[in-house]
Amino acid sequence: MRYFLLIALSTHSFGHNFLSPLATLRSAHSTLSHAFTRRRPYPTIQMEETLRKALAEKQSAVDSQGNAVRALKAAKATKADVDAAIEALNGLKLEKASIEKQLQAAVSGGDGSLSREAFRQTVNNTLERRLFYIPSFKIYRGVAGLYDYGPPGCAVKSNVLGFWRQHFVLEENMLEVDCPCVTPEVVLKASGHVDKFTDLMVKDEKTGTCYRADHLLKDFCNEKLQKDLSITAEKAAELKHVLAVLDDLSSEELGAKIKEYGITAPDTKNPLSDPYPFNLMFQTSIGPSGLSPGYMRPETAQGIFVNFKDLYYYNGNKLPFAAAQIGQAFRNEISPRQGLLRVREFTLAEIEHFVDPENKSHPKFSEVANLEFLMFPREEQMSGHSAKKIPLGEAVSRGIVNNETLGYFIGRVYLFLTRLGIDEDRLRFRQHLANEMAHYAADCWDAEIESSYGWIECVGIADRSAYDLRAHTDKSGVALVAQEKFSEPREVEKLVINPVKKELGLAFKGNQRMVVEALEAMNEKEALEMKATLESKGETEFLVCTLGKNVTITKSMVTISKEIKKEHQRVFTPSVIEPSFGIGRIIYCLYEHSFYTRPSKAGDEQLNVFRFPPLVAPIKCTVFPLVQNQQYEEVAIVISQSLTTAGISHKIDITGTSIGKRYARTDELGVPFAITVDSTSSVTIRERDSKDQIRVDVEQAATVIKEVTDGRTTWADVWSTFPHQSSASADDE
Ligand code: AMP
Question: Which domains does the chain have, with CATH numbers?
């Protein structure tokens, strides 16, 4: 997905007037203060972009001062003038070098923070070591783009999906369905996937290794823009333009650019083939004959569309309503990179909200209208600005977001993601540029989350108009439509096309039926154009697709008129608003946003912590006897049983390991609370991030944990209610 991240700086070409990028970075550091150091392990993309922009501007100042020096010399100016100009040029060069250094430090982590890559490595090492995920089929050296979720990963996923059902399906009374992954070809032919679900691919001409052509071009342009500090302003503008139109490039244009820039295979530097389309669907055949082609579904949405008629009936023939589905989707990605973010099989959670195209208001919009978060409208992207906070109500009333229902879902997605623990400052809603949107779509926004890989599209929220239901109506012959019954019959003007069969029969004999059907299938615009031509010229050429040729239609062969008719109902194809959630991507970003390290008590190592909210945490609580002692173990078992009865996932650890080590182990799994049994009447409860501890009676322990993990109370409330326990006694990590 493409984006523009240039940030408006109040700058002039010369240094004295603009905000020093270092100052920008410093002030950003100080305003974000605690939050930044704890939550942002590396400089944000925005900070990096600020420096990049400052560098580009300084470069152009150097260029124009260089020209000025040359002009003075050519004009044989006085030595004093030339020297002064050269001194100014040297000053600018020094300033440029200083910005370069800052940028280098920000990118590589030289400013004291971790570099993105180092941070990612630390998170991924922890995730893999603690079995949040495992590369699939690892003992056979794995398969790119396929991953297993291990025990804590499964628990996190199940919590995220549980919350998704609660937040969307339950809250909005959605109709949940569960359809097969194996899908017959006809369904995906109708949806357009068989013909168009392709990426352009190039092959290493010697080894046959495949790459996504647009990714290679994108990487080349980004690398040049970011690392080659010697490129001219014109070249930089050209590369930016290529990035902006990347999605629009035809196979030929993409191939030409790859040749022009001399792009070779990244691994071997061998020449590349011309780009050609590769369909991302996994093909299969249904049944033993091999005659019934099918595919593993690339999305779950089609299962809902094909069931529209029954779901509409189930809903009492009323609109609006939404159907939802959670399930696996399969895409044979050409060269999956970016670890868990681009995989070949993943869980999608999709909502199809069906609505009357003439009324896209939403009764609950007022509940989200006051939310304010980062939005990145099309115009801001085109003019090189960055995302900014806009109240959602204003975005809809100003027409930035196409309609209330779309706006409502944007707001609900924001609440969903932030309640899961996504950092709201690293979440933005980016509107699709005109060239990214399908021609039928009314408006599309992506919820993008900033991770160490950059901004990642995690949820797509699109108003797809009536496209999908129409496509399946056309292919299946089953009308996927809704009706609005009028309380009083209404007079409506209707276009009536009457083919004169006798005349058509004489003219077209055996082909008469095909011509009649084609005439009747004309839309209003086509019919009115034909009527006008017949009236002015007496005949017209008309394409009959089923015959594969044009035929001549004369005035006597068809009557086209507008008539007033009484109607008792309106029949229409509903529009669909589709929020589509990549669950794996959300979870991965959540891992990055939740991860931090803190020094051990002795200060000799960094300990890893996942700051998961209780809602997401794979295990809510651990129970440890402080020392190995039968009485304490019995108390631990009693508490464990109460936790089980209360439905709280927990882990009991009666190994003799030091309590500090046990805390460190569970912090690394993101367990928010730990109960330590250090007496037979009362126990301590420790909160993971603050390491604060309270003392509660044994009988109260499970209830306190239940209340705080269910969100019925907060740790702050618990902290102010119960006696505090000095952490030194137990927390010796
Ligand atoms: P799309 O239908 O392409 O808009 O994809 C819907 C959602 O699926 C996206 O917003 C992503 O979160 C997710 N997604 C798409 N492709 C992949 C992939 N290869 N691996 C993981 N998630 C994906």
Answer: 488-568 (3.30.720.200), 619-725 (3.40.50.800)
